[in-house]
Specification:
Chain lengths: 215, 215
């Protein structure tokens, strides 16, 4: 199988960190986002969504081969193939908590970072939504919305991490991976962790110190 | 356990349709969104997010009780408790396909419906994002973005359903539930299925004819 990957983008990084935590090695094919290779004809035959990451399976794994897109779907594929170490939870309540926090980080924090990045930088003019779309004009007002969302999101995460070692509870999980790539991606979009968010910073230091963080 | 529920909102409906497909009955507590009960002090002690649905477990299920929020997390809780009939897939590739399509529907179609509804209706002035937030002003330009996204989304779904009976493959799944509540919610926000989208309409008729659709 092959993992279509890109160096700095947050979604491919989510998969890389996940695979490193699982100890799974996969052949990687780099896609050059700076040259818009993800929107070129060759890549669009692999993933018509025009987004990375994408996992291309071999014919031996699925008749006719198959491409899985969406980073969370790729991680869930590997979780089903190799359950240990568990990153999506074992018991019903663990599974639910990891899913709930993962989605909260995505809808509140990650969305804010995308709003801030895609609606301001000239490089994303008419490409305000990730992937292959008709022209989608930027909306500068979304930068202001991103600031509101980011402030409330980081405050909520700081509160959560005041009483919990990891985001979803006592065990490192996919929610922490999602949090890490969100915080680091947001920093590139100008959204920082507040100075006073000591719990969030403690958690970010811990998750960044894991060997997987550099994957 | 208790499921905090609301009549017309799409996320609670996602859980109701899911539970009906699974044959699971849960005590429901109605939350009156027309009166903003979800933002009142009583409900905020249950779910500080100020959103429905929320599942409150009994002490016997989790020491100290627990509240699960986010509709997908609630459904995954029940899937872990009662795996059959499977709605999140059994094999790694089924699991990945269901997750991938579910997320695509959410990020492209559901997001467009939220943009259209929340940024136009006077009832949502300064409440352009679901749940308990600081004031979030509406951005009228998001209605135009919603139209672009909805057009591309429904076209892609129609193409997909030209060659697949259900959204994620040969078997009805959580992706179809997500598709149903998205299409019906979008219609309330003024985003319809295109007249020419025959495959999408065939699928919508089939999914709407299941007894679970009225749950």
């Amino acid at each position: 199988m092959k993992l279509y990957d890109a160096e700095w983008a947050p979604s491919p990084r989510r998969v890389r960190v996940y695979l490193a935590e699982k100890g799974i090695e996969v052949e990687r094919v780099p896609v050059d986002l700076r040259r818009d290779e993800q929107l070129g004809d060759a890549y669009l035959t692999i993933n018509p969504r025009g987004a990375v990451p994408a996992l291309q399976l071999d014919d031996s794994e699925v008749p006719g081969g198959a491409v899985i897109c969406e980073s969370a779907a790729i991680c869930r594929y590997f979780e089903a193939v190799q359950p240990e170490p568990s990153l999506f939870g074992r018991t019903p309540i663990e599974i639910a908590r990891i899913e709930s926090w993962t989605r909260r980080i995505e809808s509140d924090g990650y969305a804010a970072a995308v709003y801030a990045l895609r609606n301001a930088a000239p490089a994303f003019a008419d490409r305000a939504v990730t992937g292959k779309w008709p022209a989608v004009p930027q909306i500068p007002e979304l930068s202001a919305r991103a600031l509101i969302m980011w402030g409330a999101f980081t405050e909520a995460m700081d509160q959560r991490l005041a009483t919990s070692e990891w985001i979803a509870g006592d065990v490192f999980s996919f929610a922490d991976i999602t949090g890490l790539i969100t915080i680091d991606f947001a920093a590139r979009a100008g959204l920082a962790m507040p100075d006073g968010a000591a719990n969030l910073r403690r958690w970010h230091d811990a998750v960044s110190a894991r060997p997987s963080a550099t994957a």
